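User: Show me sequence and structure for the first protein, then do the same for the second.

Assistant: Starting with the first protein.
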Amino acid sequence: MTEFRDSTDDRVDTAMPRRTAMRTAKLASLPLGIAGRAVGGWGKRLTGQSAEEVNAALSAKAAEQLFEVLGTLKGGAMKFGQALSVFEAAVPEEMAAPYREALTKLQAAAPPMSPKQTRRVLAEQLGRSWADRFAEFEDEPAAAASIGQVHRAVWHDGREVAVKVQYPGADEALHSDLRQLQRFSRLFQALVPGTEVKPLLAELSARMSEELDYRTEADNQRAFAKAFHGDGQVFIPKVVASAPKVIVSEWVTGTPLAEIIRDGTPEQRNEAGRLLAEFHYSSPARARMLHSDPHPGNFLLLDDGRLCVIDFGAVARLPEGAPPTLGVIMRLALQGRSEELLDALRAEGFVRPGTELDADDVHAYLLPLIAPLTADRFHFTRRWAQKQAMRMGDTRSTDFHTGRSLNLPPNWLLIHRVTAGAVGILCQLDAELELRAIVERWQPGFAA
């Protein structure tokens, strides 16, 4: 006999708002005037000018409304908020606090579907007798994802499982959100100093169809679980069952990185950072893929000391492993071989044909970004991230104009974003670790 929690359902259905007009109206309700003034203050701060014009109360109000709108919409809007949240370490501290809290909430909270809706999706995806596959199923969701929610359950063989159920209308919502968010890219740009928001949106859009089919995510997760099976540092939950809009995998209990960021000891922070870096740099060699959704909600520290990684909807497929050119660029920059560095960048498409750049200027622009590799140990701090954002965002500086003259080839966009996101988490963790040794072990082209 299958056992369930109380299935009484008096709530109104809370499916994702699908109509473009409704979703556009919600996005338009973002406090553009308030946020615009805050953005102006951020801009002055980032360019080294006075920060006194920045109003913390207005910023807090904007952050509160940002979370409310993006969290309610879920879909692409929530996914975009999650993508932005890893970059908040680069925002000046006096501006970051309200956005840090609001955006971090996006990693773990969203209005749930009603139990009636959830059961309807389960019946559509797993068959009318879906309940027979579970010994227990909790109607109340345990967590929210960008395009689905997670329920705790017990599989028919007694295993505790996590059941991720996609929101009805997620496909329409994702497309609608990302179209509309393009309109507000200048507003959101302030949340990601030194990073172009439009390519981020374009890249998210390009990968949507893949993420909407949970069978693809299940295949990705199976591949990672196989690659890291028996590993003493990284744990990937096994997939139990999957369908286009439902995925069932092993349930895992651990401490989310968001908690360690907020309350962790220095030892916990350093170890979480080391494990994250090890996973990031070793994945291309071990799984021939790169986990491409780096935000604290997707990582947990287990009681046995391992890092648990979840959510494999977005991955970069690297059948040949990490590109050796990346290691070569790092090495040439560290060695100060500026002319060879510029040649390597030009050959890979980082410099558009016909663009004239000074090799020493390019080296000066990149060197601070590889500072974590210049010493045996490096301390990732918010201050360091803020300094880089200010340096790259100062319109009066040579670095700003050098950065604007460089190009990011499409095949490098995902690697760039994921690496930047991982570094953002390391800065949030305030982690100190031996990154150079990890890169030397796993990144082709670096140690040659």
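Switching to the second protein now.
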Amino acid sequence: MVGWSTNLLFRSRKRRRRGTSTKQRCNYIQQENAQEQKEQEEEDDDGGFKLKTSACGVQPLGNLYFSSSAHNSRNTGLGNLQTLTDELVLDILGLLDATHLGNLAAVSKSFYVFCTHEPLWRNLVLEKYGGDFLFDGSWRYTYAKAYKPLAGSLNGGGSLGLKVKDFYSDYLFQSWLCANLEMRPDWLERDNILRRKGISVDEFVRDFEEPNKPVLLEGCLDGWAALGKWDREYLVETCGDVRFAVGPVEMKIDDFFRYSDQAREERPLYLFDPKFGEKVPILDSDYEVPVYFNEDLFNVLGKERPDYRWIIIGPAGSGSSFHIDPNSTSAWNAVIKGSKKWVLFPPDVVPPGVHPSPDGAEVACPVSIIEWFMNFYSATKDWKKKPIECICKAGEVIFVPNGWWHLVINLEDSVAITQNFVSRRNLLNVLDFLKKPNASSLVSGTKDRVKLYDKFKNAIEAMFPGTIDQLMQKAEERMAQHEKPSFWDSVTDTKAGAFKFSF
């Protein structure tokens, strides 16, 4: 890719340096960048400040106030487009193909920064090649190498990494920072989840499932063959050319590992496949559902049940931003390799920075998980209802009750199994969810979103006659019990006054 894109950059320089060879032009660019980097370092050290910049020189806007120059090359390089927000500029550039992006990158240093923004090239790779690509250091270089296999011969691959001076942008800098920042120790120190080992199923139901509380379970995966077998070599050998769902594409697992070894981006791709057991049956036999979650009433639908189980593989920094599990189900998540940081909020507490639509069909939240930690996590320390947090390690299982908001981020390369389920404890919640007026926009994991309620309810009544009526009766009794006034509440003001007057 670099060999191809640098040729585009050279076009803007040829008018001043006609007749120079490709090698001479490369040497000139490298010398120019080295000089600019040296000047930047001298400025950074001035007055005791160390001003952080991104790989291509982008700095946060606040650094402009400490600069000896009031010049922001972001604005001069964009010309009349400088009035647009960075997000809007990138949205517009996202409409262009690779050739036009490459040409536009040669217009100015500012356009070079915007046009080499990695998410733009990630979209181009996934749209053009699907899962048939071999990641090679950056998305831009990956695209060019797939487009022209000899690309990059000028410098042996990777990214030329031109450094732009005096470019200030909070949006672009934060994108780079989120891609390169590791989890801080103070983001990991809080661990307030209840942990249990060796409890009975009845204890689990009484203490956690019925009251709808999270718990981390230890020791219940000890019999899993997957714990000892599912390393990279085993998965690559076992899965071979089978393709797994990775974001919007499907990839061979070996190609995904090649990507995850090199990925350094704000939102790394995440292997998240609901059909892994059907695709590779031996994986299905390497684990079994923990005894606490054996009751799964969606089983009555057979092959028509919504997606419910996934194999999850991802590099450090990958994960899922805040969401509530689909179809009002509860879930369990078992870590086989690696470790995960969990943050959970109860159903009545919306996490800071998260904005669900009134009907629950859409959720607006920060672009990346790291961004949420940077901008919102500290606020939760002062909340009366603090989130439940933990680090779930290999061999441990977390129970996620229905309706709970949760965020998950891999702290290292991780492999996990997760399943959503419906038990008697949350059956009524699921039925209520499936019959909502806008269920067709809320239900997920199935093609038949409209008739799922009727199919599920009829199947439950046929398989377990009277169960729904019994659960509704118990729910009404519990509600009446909660609404029943206490002795002191039943004493009226008149009686209390008469009682007091008699003395």
